[in-house]
Design goal:
The chain is mainly alpha-helical. 64% of the residues lie in helices and 0% in strands. α1 crosses α2, α3 runs parallel beside α5 and α6 runs parallel beside α8.
């Protein structure tokens, strides 16, 4: 049962005086649904951080798996999500995307743990330390340094494809 259904069922019972009705009334007070400005803020922040595609999984996480819809969030859940999204540095998100691009190309080149489909991070980091332009592990590259690393890995990937 989602929160909206729960509210519809709990409200008529709230006046009956039973212990369950008292619990339902208390829950209704603490589980007030998200308001319009909160909804707008969440969507604006998700867009700003380029996280629109991950909206459902983010909301699922912030609601403890209860919902994937922002409209079904409580005000408290929305406040927590907004605070978190405001604390995220857009550069960190951009750096993560660039690292993921590097990892994707490494995966395509077959840099996997034998017998699995998981990326072999030791192989990636060894390559970065020995062959990348700053000679350091992938996670040690900053947002400012990553574009050149991505270009370098793209060139390496293109030469890999030519050898196939």
């Amino acid at each position: 049962m989602n929160l909206t259904s729960f509210v519809r069922h709990a409200v008529p019972a709230a006046g009956s005086g039973t212990p369950n009705a008292k619990c339902a009334t208390k829950l209704l007070v603490t589980m007030t649904l998200i308001n319009g400005p909160q909804l707008t803020a969440i969507h604006a922040l998700l867009s700003e951080l380029h996280l629109r595609d991950e909206k459902e999984s983010i909301i699922r996480e912030f609601t403890g798996g209860r919902t994937t819809s922002s409209r079904s969030m409580t005000k408290a859940e929305a406040r927590a999500l907004i605070a978190h999204l405001k604390s995220v540095d857009p550069k960190d998100k951009g750096a993560e995307k660039m690292r993921n691009k590097v990892l994707s190309m490494c995966h395509e080149m077959g840099w996997r743990i034998p017998g699995t489909d998981r990326i072999d991070m030791d192989h990636v980091n060894n390559w970065c330390v020995s062959r990348s332009y700053l000679k350091k592990k992938l996670d040690d590259y900053t947002h400012k340094e990553l574009p050149l690393l991505v270009t370098q890995v793209e060139q390496f990937y293109q030469s890999f494809l030519k050898r196939i």
